[in-house]
Specification:
Blueprint (H helix, E strand, L loop, with lengths): L3 H24 L5 H26 L16 H21 L8 E5 L5 E5 H25 L9 H6 L5
Antiparallel strand pairs: 1-2
Helix pairs in contact: 1-3, 1-4, 2-3, 2-4
Keywords: Metal-binding
Organism: Trinickia dinghuensis
Protein name: Damage-inducible protein DinB
Amino acid sequence: MSRQPYAQLIAIKQWADRGLYDAVGKNFDQLTHEERSVMLRILDHMHVVDKIFQHHLQGLSHTFQAPRSERPAELEALERDAREVDDWYVGYVNDLKESDVEEPIDFTFTSGKPARMRRGEIILHVCLHGTYHRGNAGAVLQLKGLTPSRDSITDFLEDPGVR
């Protein structure tokens, strides 16, 4: 299978994640304490899952016991770390050989259950997982009457800053 669709999906994820952090950063002070807590938990969960699967792709162990941190970091730290991991995924997929997309990787979920996924399936999972939770974060903003970030593939393709 070609790595091209994975490269485009990861680029969209990177763009959408940055848009989300921008929208959240601009509106964070307008959220209640409880809403800020929910938002940080959503962002932390997205980031931890990205890091867990980054480790799996690298063949490295990790210390995560759950798909979230015990205590989420502050917004600025989460944004900085998420940008770093998103940048890693973009570089990783761009350097991935076509033959590596189908390579299976054995790993263990944080629940202790053994698993096997192909590299392409992991990349797809990271992209779809992020999309789902960006929607959760956008809903938190919308419930406050705030505008979430643009998040669709068509928005990505129409964004002049992407090209």
